[in-house]
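Example 3.
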Amino acid sequence: MEAIVYGHFTDELELLDAVKALKNKGIRIADVRTPFPVHGLDAALKFPRSHLPKVAFAAGIIGGSLGLLFQVWVFTEGWPLNIGGKPYLSLPSFVPVTFELTILFAAFAMGFAFLLRSNLGPGKIPNILDEEVTNDHFQIILSAKNNNLSEAELAEALEATGALEVKHINAEK
Amino acid sequence: MMHVSPVREPLINGEKSYNDITSDVMAPIKAKPGKLWYGGLTVSVIVMLIGFAMIGYTVWFGIGTWGVNRTIGWGWSITNFVWWVGIGHAGTFISAILLLFRQKWRTSINRAAEAMTIFAVMCAGLFPLIHMGRLPLGFFILPYPNTRELWVNFNSPLLWDVFAITTYLLVSLLFWYFGLIPDLGTIRDRMKTLWKKKIYNFLSFGWQGSARHWQRHESMSLILAGLAAPLVLSVHTIVSFDFATSVIPGWHTTIFPPYFVSGAVFSGFAMVLTLMIVTRKALNLQEYITVGHVESMNKVIIATGSIVGIAYITELFMAWYSGVEYERYAFMNRALGPYAWAYWIMMTCNVISPQLLWIKKLRRNLAFTFVLSIFINIGMWFERFVIVVTSLHRDYLPSSWSMYKPTIIEVAIYLGTFGLFFTLFFIFIRVFPVIAIAEVKSVARSSARKFLGKPAKNQKPENQ
């Protein structure tokens, strides 16, 4: 367990100001935990854009083409069905199934990618420091490991932003 | 953007803080269930079991136990199937399409409406399976490698339905559950007993509210909404293809896809209103699901109900204008034939009744809305009945003209799906938060009475 310092706010606007203040001081923020997605927090923490939409796009293409190719194969090679003398390769009637499979693959691939990337999943045990972060606490967590400051200095900087109940967890030697 | 609008009424009434939102929404999960809940669940389970028994009876003795015949092969079961699928559409419409349009009022009702979607689609999916008569062979509809090397017919709209409904059910489930994850974390942290904490932690996938997780969650929700929006439109479109691609007068029309989709959203919103007007009272959530929410939903009802009305009139006009005598006869027969009563119930409930909502007083009247929503549910059921039965009962060959009356078995199966639906709904309201806690909190700053007109101490004037 690394040495961390944490404190919370009870208002998301105060949290945003604090994040900006800490960033201006050049302090790295290990994690911010909030009860709901705070508008503008991603920008304040300078997060890069998520790649999940790309995963969805790629999986959608895969799902759609697999679906289309399978239908084409079934109706030309696998077991061509003569339906009222209509052409075997009737692409328009393959559209619905192709469309549905595109959506199905894209949605599920993105769901799994989200869980994998965020290290979430059934049975995962979270490291909860304050149970109120899922209620009304907006928590900032600083780690001594990725800052060149001591724990006391970090705690001081965090308290200066107006954070409440600043606490530390010492490193286990 | 912190745009404080003096014109819009708040979405959350009564000075609610973030903590109040959590505890109010969680109250039914923490409290011991009351007599009303036990009573409702017992009745639902009994009705469900009777329905299942009648499904068993049908499978055992065959489809002859139903009132369907050679002329009218699709009776109540397909009517019920289309009706239930339609009911489901409101949930996805609220959670996906209204998300893309950034409608903040969706946050109070999307969770329950989406749950309703899933339960309704489950009820819907039962009917085609039962109607095939041999439930254990239901898997024949899937393309799986088999010893006969035979595949399913990808040219058939009935098969498209299999894919559309399955995808719809799975994607709705995914969207709903992933939206629930943060709220399940909230419940976990409020639970006192260890085993409950463990169960909710398992269900919440270990959620801890990290900013990075929220960022991905937001990004994922937006894309899922973007995927679910065309999906929901495609589902009822494909259901309408079941009819529109045939050569039956009254079915063979190009207007069907948009007409079915708006009809589905129309009936779905009616069902959401029926349920939510009762639920908000029973669970004491009046401050979150306000009269303003009901009014917004009623506006959707006017819009979609009017589209449905125009579709009915267009159908009549085209039947006359096309000059096709069979088409003309089919519509004359609908309005004046032996099933005219069903047609006029449909016209009254679906075309006339929603127009009353133009009056603001009625739109904001809960008792009126509740009664009206039931009328719409009935009307939309009769729409499907008219389309299925009336179009079939007098076909091209007068010697095979026939009438159809459901047997008690069919009625019991239909009621049984209500039992299934309400059993699931009763369990849902005790186990999961009925309102999306995190989403409501995220719009509270801009839309809750507590914050309106009272800027927080650090708030700077921002560009609007």
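The mean pLDDT of chain A is 88. The domain at 4-35+136-169 of chain A is CATH 3.30.70.100 (Alpha-Beta Plaits).
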